[in-house]
Write a structure and sequence with these properties.
Double Stranded RNA Binding Domain; 3 domains; 5-stranded mixed β-sheet
Length: 306
């Protein structure tokens, strides 16, 4: 059997996809696999912030189109790049065990966040990260930086940037753990929806491929991400806006943390809900409504121009 797996062509995307391929081979060595590299709109447009060109859905659109056309059988995504709503014919069929979901800082001279000089320039392409940074340090100057992970790391050494903020998961998958200066707690910086998790997208009617890959699915990660993505969908906010959400198990309960911020970080609306794992989707909806009622609706409408 031949499986054609589509992914972006960045080093990180290829590393993640090869991780998936290695596990498929280990589980079923008789399967043949073809790796298909797809350049997305988000990869082509690198001189503008994501929020100005349509958000992170631009990193999956062309890959999903190839899946619908049956040019590929599986799409491997970083789940934080995948919008809450999918094309009708597609599903996130498999979610492997999550890598570290936290945000981390890489700083010149390994300077910790609290010790950064006043008015330091911090590089990040994320409105979510920028808002949370500015909430604690309004003196900081945020410089939007785009590009692949290795490109952003190089910018730290080439440009007048004191530090950059990136996802821990990407660094760890690339073997770059040793350059992390500081990992941020969830209390300090809440991650993006689905951060650290991979999503294997399939056609709904392709039960055979789903059965072959079922061994890769991780229950705790799937349940947590279901709550997070339900939260995002209920907010009706794109994943490029200053919205954060993270769910984790505590004993037998699922705890979901959510946040909506304005762009300068002056106002942050944050809350938590706890419930049973089987009610993950309802937990996401409940938390979103709590934040909307507390003022998040006005913030999101203001940012999106409604």
């Amino acid at each position: 059997m031949l499986l054609r797996i589509g992914t972006r062509a960045s080093k990180l995307a290829l590393t993640q996809t090869k991780w998936v391929i290695a596990r498929i081979f280990a589980h079923n060595p008789d399967i043949r696999i073809e790796l298909v590299k797809i350049k997305t709109s988000g990869d082509k447009i690198t001189n503008m912030p994501l929020s100005a060109i349509g958000g992170k859905g631009l990193f999956v659109k062309e890959i999903e189109e190839a899946l619908i056309r049956k040019d590929i059988d599986i799409a491997v995504h970083s789940l934080k790049d995948v919008p809450a709503e999918l094309p009708d014919s597609l599903i996130i069929g498999i979610i492997p065990e999550r890598e570290d979901p936290r945000d981390v800082m890489i700083a010149k001279d390994n300077t910790f966040f609290d010790d950064l000089p006043r008015n330091s320039c911090i590089g990040t392409s994320s409105l979510r990260r920028a808002a949370q940074l500015l909430h604690y340090r309004p003196d900081l100057k945020i410089l939007p930086i785009r590009g692949n992970l290795d490109t952003r790391i190089k910018k730290l050494h080439l440009d007048d940037i004191q530090a950059i903020i990136v996802a821990a998961a990407g660094l760890k998958r690339m073997g770059f753990d040793d350059i992390i200066t500081q990992s941020f707690s969830y209390e300090f910086m809440l991650p993006a929806i689905g951060q650290g998790a991979l999503g294997l997208e399939l056609r709904k009617d392709d039960q055979k491929t789903g059965d072959i890959l079922a061994f890769l699915d991780h229950y705790a990660t799937r349940v947590a991400v279901k709550a997070e993505r339900s939260f995002l969908m209920e907010l009706k906010a794109g994943c490029h806006l200053p919205v954060a959400g993270f769910a984790k198990f505590e004993n037998d309960s699922l705890c979901l943390y959510g946040l909506v911020a304005d762009l300068d970080g002056k106002t942050i609306i944050r809350d938590t809900v706890v419930g049973r794992p089987e009610n993950a989707r309802d937990l996401g909806s409940t938390l979103a409504q709590k934040l909307l009622d507390a003022g998040a609706r006005e913030i999101l409408n203001s940012i999106s121009g409604k």
